[in-house]
Amino acid sequence: MYLLGYDIGSSSVKASLVDAESGKCVASAFYPKKEAPILSVRLGWAEQNPESWWEYLRVATQAVLVESRVDKEDIKAIGISYQMHGLVCVDRDHRVLRPAIIWCDSRAVSYGQKAFEELGRERCLLHLLNSPGNFTASKLAWVKANESQVYERIYKIMLPGDYIAMRLSDEVCTTVSGLSEGMLWDFRQNTLAGFLLDYYGIDSSLIAEIKPTFSEQGYVSAAAARDLGLKEGTPITYRAGDQPNNALSLNVFNPGEIASTAGTSGVVYGINGAVSYDEKSRVNTFAHVNYSPEQPRLGVLLCINGTGILNSWVKRNVAGEISYAEMNEWAGQVPIGSEGVCVLPFGNGVERMLENREVGCSMSGLNFNRHDKRHIIRAAQEGIVFSFKYGIDIMSQMGISVQKIHAGYTNMFLSPIFRDTLSGVTGATIELYDTDGALGAAKGAGIGAGIYKNTDEAFASLEKRGVVEPDRTRRQEYLDAYSIWLQRLDKEVCE
Question: According to DSSP H, which parts of 315-354 are helical?
Fold first, then answer.
């Protein structure tokens, strides 16, 4: 008995086939092998053709089936993870009306900001838990204002994962978690965000039928089965955006638990057990995969743009022809606090955490007679960690007590300096796992299909690669270094 998981990213589509009994991945594949193109016909625009996602999924599916030699009859459920905040528009025949406006497209910023101001900050935060921002609802408002002929033909709007589910089953539906990431869910009324739809002049009939995150959401159609090599009637039993799904993949479901990634950008995703928001809207809050009005589980998402991209910049421009492992060794030769060198890692655009300021990346405290490459390498990693700490403190103010951080054993979590500094400055234990989004989606499908009786059973086989405990004896050293970094940031923000 097997479970099939898909991860629909903006760079590629990954498929993973999991043995439901052992919980182990038996085959995985992704496509395209080179980064998928993003169309940007104007500055700030980012679009992709949803039909290309389907083609990538088809190739990845067939590769997995060939590699595993699993009989399609033995695949019992399908789960979907997807890039968040996108907008797909289809007509009554389920044909795509325009390219998808994806997560990194910024054309709707002004629409969301105007709505935030005119509807009122307090009203938006109380009901949406966020500013309308540059999310799906605002992107649809842009289409309505600028492409009226397209808007008039829309039958339903969808998130990227909803579109893939539709292609698999020919059924159109969505989830509360998905609607919340698009600013289409009212947490006060526990219904569609009618006040925002009314403000934008959007008909609520464009919103798809809502189904639970873990449930039978459709069945593979005859046409999709022929196209992919799957069995007709295989149920689709789970879908979630990539960050909630990443948390699920790391077995993060309960208040106080944290999932973190540190790739090109960095994400801290914490679970809150109470409906709350940040008054300055520096973090985003969405319904987590196990959210219900009776037992609210909210994912509070912090994104730091300048994470791995800073580390790679340092490798290219400072470290020279050495590996990341050697960089980590060099950094380990320098004491906590980098002997006064301080790096602000914000050189990859505006940071929501800093109230949409573009602070830029800067270095201070450099002494030509005392410091060398090793200090810069360590200070860069510490600066990234301190930005995580800054965001985690925001979460703490919202009532999230951070005691444990779950992370994949990859990217910057491979660095002992990064891990030890994060654990030391936050006081949290870090648990490292081998997992990915497609594998998590497969496990989610097993939960939705009732193959696993609960999350504990689904993730019993999750392989732990290591545990990092905070060094209590050196805690003050980490906090002192963070204090110096924070003073530098405050000065930069105030200038």
Answer: 324-331
308-338 per-residue burial string, b: 16 or more CB within 10 A, e: under 16: bbbbebbbeeebeeeebeebbebbeebebbb
d(CA 66, CA 58): 12
CB-neighbour burial class of residue 138 (10 A; exposed 0-12, middle 13-18, buried 19+): buried
What is the β-pairing status of strands 404-408 and 257-262?
A: parallel
Q: Output the pLDDT for position 118.
A: 98
DSSP 21-46: TT--EEEEEEE-SSPPP-B-SSTT--
State the DSSP code for 405. Answer: E
- Residues 430-446 have pLDDT tens digits of 999 999 999 999 999 99
The angle that helices 416-426 and 324-331 make with each other, rounded to 10 degrees, is 50
pLDDT bracket for residue 468 (50, 70, 90): very high
The pLDDT of residue 263 is 86
**Least confident among 22-36, 241-255, 301-315, 429-443:** 301-315
* Structure tokens given for 187: 């947490």
pLDDT in tens, 327-348: 999 999 999 999 999 999 999 8
Distance CA 7, CA 220 (A): 17
Q: What is the mean pLDDT of residues 123-148?
A: 97
Q: What pLDDT score was predicted for residue 495?
A: 66
Distance CA 171, CA 163 (A): 9
pLDDT band at 355 (very low <50, low <70, confident <90, very high): confident
Query: Residue 241: how many CB atoms within 10 A of its CB?
Result: 29
Question: Of all residues in the chain, what percent carry a pLDDT higher than 90?
Answer: 91
| Region class of 340: left (phi > 0), else alpha (psi between -120 and 50), else beta | left
CA nearest to 438, candidates 23, 15, 9, 11: 15
CB burial string 457-486: b at 16+ within 10 A, e below: ebbeebeeeeebebeeeeeeebbebbebbb
Nearest Cα to Cα of residue 254 among 65, 454, 470, 48: 454
**Mean pLDDT score across all residues of the chain:** 95
- Tokens 């990341």: give the residue: 324
Give the residue from 89, 75, 74 showing the smallest Cα distance to 15.
75
Q: Per DSSP, what are the bridge partners of residue 466?
A: 432
**267 contact partners, CB below 8 Å, separation of at least 6:** 243, 246, 259, 260, 261, 301, 302, 303, 304
**What is the rounded average pLDDT of the residues 294-313?**
92
Beta strands in 201-277 (DSSP E): 209-210, 236-241, 257-262, 266-272
Report d(CA 160, CA 139) in Å as an integer.
Answer: 14
* φ, ψ at 305 (rounded to 5°): -65, -40
